[in-house]
Amino acid sequence: RFVRPGFQRIATAPDSSEVRVLAFASPDRTQVAVVGMNTSVRPANLNLVLEGFPSAVMGGKVVYYRTSESENCHRIAEIPVRGGNWPFTGIDLIAPGESVFTVTNG
After folding, report:
1. Is the pLDDT assigned to residue 89 strictly greater than 90?
2. 64-82: per-residue pLDDT in tens?
3. What are phi and psi of 4, to 5 degrees?
4. Torsion sign (Cα): 25, 30, 31, 36
């Protein structure tokens, strides 16, 4: 649904063993999809930083979707790719415990 044919997997560096993340981008890096899972029962505060994307992507927004015990691919919010909360300058989101999430600009 969010990872389109032709997308390539890109490197991720999660800083928590309880949050698993995969990221994919179109070959020209104009589209991105980050899919993750919070395996903990506790919420996870995340700051996803994109690197090596064109300025149109970096200056834009992504849509945050979430699936949990009470949600089924629910559209949560549009979030700026560049947050203004230094030093956390990426995509800010909270992933509830035992949830799956996707952020995408596609």
Report:
1. no
2. 999 999 999 999 999 999 9
3. -80, 155
4. positive
Give the alpha-carbon dihedral of 75, 79, 85, 88, to 10 degrees. 80
Question: Do 73 and 103 contact (CB within 8 A), yes or no?
Answer: no
Cβ atoms of 75 and 84 within 8 Å: the answer is no
By C-alpha distance, which of 47, 61, 51 is closest to 16?
A: 47
CA atoms of 77 and 41, how far apart (whole Å) = 22
- Expressed in angstroms, the distance from the first to the final Cα of the chain is 10
Asked if residue 28 has pLDDT above 90, the reply is yes
Q: What is the pTM assigned to this prediction?
A: 0.92
Identify whether the C-beta of residue 27 lies closer than 8 Å to the C-beta of residue 6: yes
